Amino acid sequence: MVEVRSDKMNDAQISVKNLSVAYRDAVVLKQISLDVRRGEFVSLVGPSGSGKTTLLNALAGFIPASGELHVPGKVGVVFQDYSVFPWMTVAQNIAFGLENGKRKDQDEIVRHHLKLIQLEDKGDRYPAQLSGGQVQRVGIARALAPEPEVIFMDEPYGALDRHTREKMQQWLLNVWSAEHKTIIFVTHDIDEAIYLSDRVLVLNSGKVAAEHHIPFDRPRDEEIKFSSEFIRLKKEIYDRMN
Question: Which residue has better confidence, 136 or 195?
Answer without folding.
Answer: 195
